[in-house]
Amino acid sequence: MDNTNDTPRVAVLGLGYVGLPLAVAFARHYPVVGFDVKRSRIEGLRAGHDDTQEVSPEELAAAEGLTITDELAALRECNVYVVTVPTPIDSGRQPDLTPLRRASETVGQVIGPGDVVIYESTVYPGATEEVCIPIVEATSGLTFNRDFFAGYSPERINPGDRAHRVTDIVKVTSGSTPEIAEFVDALYRRVITAGTHQASSIRVAEAAKVIENTQRDVNIALVNELAILFERLGIDTQEVLAAAGTKWNFLPFRPGLVGGHCIGVDPYYLTYKAQQAGHHPEMILAGRRINDGMGGYVAAQVVKLLTKRKRPVVDAEILVLGLAFKENCPDLRNTRVVDIVAELDDYHARVSVHDPEVLAEEAAAEYGIELTEAPQNGGYDAVILAVAHDRFRELGTEGLRALLRPGGVLYDIKGMLPRDDVDGRL
């Protein structure tokens, strides 16, 4: 590991929601090459614009130590390779490690003796050493823990969160040998002002990451199930949660759609590994079933409200406000708003989707949804508040009601409005 005794020259592979903020943070202390295979992404960043809105033009301009490129040759000048590519699931809800495999092949083409590769992508325990490292070995011809080394430091990026940036969140670190574990920890410790936590092994660090979001998923599933129950009992869920929240140790989870790249995906990585190990993860899978079904549940509730008012559902004009998976953020990854749209389409309703935060071309390319730019006042039989964007909050009850035809239905998924101002909510 002679190269690691020199100044770290860091390559960050994947300049998305995770990689770009990390690359900018590293560039304050080390020479950094930011690498991405998407040419349009490289061109945008070179022009000072980040479509994810995680890094401002000013922050990009100030990152003097950062070189942004899609050229493989530029990576050969580095001695530390940080992989931040996504780890999605496929149509069968199985881990899709294709981006991680390809990134490992890329690392294998440029890594040299003494170099270190660090993975940040969320995976199941064992994936780094069982899947990724063998690819690096086979591509490079080098031997793991003799010629090159590895670390794992799971990402903790929260898209759209301006209070918790990459440097403000404690970073878990690990390495393939005790010496490398110290090196990886020191590398991040210089950048992460919140500090680091060094795990005893790569597998422990992998497991820690995947259970963070699994825990949240299960808790949200519990509250979603309670919301379904309380609706049948004629009790307002938000009022119940407000009352229960007066106890100091009551956890403040709220019902809603569970999308995004983390909470709605990571548990499937853990259940995949659990089943490989011969264990059926009942609670985790039950939580996933409940949360994955909430889009259909919301659609059914809106249809029920329309029917009670004797309004035909077929050809009903329904406006869905919000497509991003969370508020004030353009991130469309694994958004479950599409489940509502698909369910209402099955009822033959006419569904329009409006979201001023997301890129229209991305919505069309990813989900085949053509966004409505300017909803028409008095044009809809139902309006569904799906995402709590500030722009929607600013409309207020009066502005949102103005979108409806007389007797139309206003359904609030996120609890943005007072109970008496809406016709239904989770």
Structural class by sheet pairing and helices: alpha/beta
Biggest sheet features: 6 strands, parallel
Q: State mean pLDDT (0 to 100 scale).
A: 95
Spatial shape: globular
Strand composition percent: 5-15%
Low-confidence runs (pLDDT<50, min 5 residues)? none
**First-residue to last-residue Cα separation:** 55 Å
Residues in helix, %? 25-40%
What radius of gyration results from the CA coordinates? 23 Å
Order of helices and strands: EHEHHEEHEHEEHEHHHHHEHEHEHEE
Strand neighbour order, sheet with most strands: 3-2-1-4-5-6
Number of helices: 14
Q: How many beta-strand elements? A: 13
How is this structure best described in words?
- The chain is α/β, with parallel strands linked by helices.
- The protein has 14 helices and 13 strands.
- Strands 3-2-1-4-5-6 form a six-stranded parallel β-sheet, with helices on both faces. Strands 10-9-11-12-13 form a five-stranded parallel β-sheet, sandwiched between helices.
- Helix 14 links the parallel strand 11 and strand 12.
